[in-house]
Design a protein that fits this description.
2 domains; mainly beta; Jelly Rolls
Length: 224
């Protein structure tokens, strides 16, 4: 297990105001309507041997990110093994379905489900396209690790920072930022965030952060 276990409650949706803190005391936002590009950000758990069907209702990019354990992700007839340290990136459209299965007999799997809405100017959905993307935060501490999801979708970064180590993320002009603390306690852009808290930011040129616990695992998303 790369990530320490944390709470099992969901974080809410991204907003458009600068410095909007989202406490993780809300229920899952499966069908959240949002004018923002980041339309769904769910912290989910899947019981042993259970299957979750995610039905596409809009064109976009769906990310499945295991936090604890591994998943079997089935898309357009093909099944992919997605474990901690990797994530599934699936292009979806209305009518598409993704099958997510917990292969374990006794263990619950915790994962993040993210949906990025398609840009208005982009018309080709390329529905069904699947990518398995990997990253290593265990052997790369105190650094932001970029994971490419396509320039038209934005950027996603993972990081594991040690206590009292700070960092910064430069933001392209016009981009928004969503920060999520997978585990630990951090100060992000002058706000204190605990495990499974999120922070939405806009009109920022740089996001500065500092880990306040021996190990903090972070996720950052930038998008326009």
């Amino acid at each position: 297990m790369i990530y320490p276990s944390g709470s099992r409650v969901a974080c809410g949706e991204s907003g458009t105001t600068c410095l909007q803190t989202l406490k993780s005391n809300l229920s899952s936002f499966d069908h959240m309507e949002s004018p923002d590009r980041l339309q769904i950000f769910n912290d989910r758990s899947l019981a042993p041997k259970q299957v979750l069907l995610i039905h596409g209702e809009r064109i976009g990019k769906r990310l499945i990110i295991p936090i604890e354990g591994a998943l079997q992700v089935r898309n357009v007839g093909l099944t992919h093994h997605v474990e901690v340290g990797s994530m599934a990136s699936v292009t979806v459209d209305a009518g598409s379905t993704i099958h997510i299965r917990n292969p374990y007999s006794l263990s619950t799997v915790n994962f993040l489900e993210v949906h990025l809405g398609e840009a208005a100017a982009r018309r080709e959905s390329n529905a069904g396209a699947f990518e398995l993307l990997t990253f290593d935060i265990v052997n790369t501490p105190n650094a932001l690790i970029p994971v490419p999801i396509g320039v038209e979708w934005g950027n996603i970064y993972f990081a594991r920072y040690e206590e009292r180590v700070d960092g910064s993320l430069p933001i392209d002009n016009g981009h928004k930022v969503f920060a999520f603390v997978i585990d630990g306690i951090c100060e992000i852009h002058c706000r204190l965030l605990e495990s499974r808290d999120g922070l939405s930011m806009a009109d920022c040129t740089t996001v500065e952060f500092e880990s306040l616990t021996p190990q903090s695992v972070l996720l950052f998303m930038t998008y326009h």
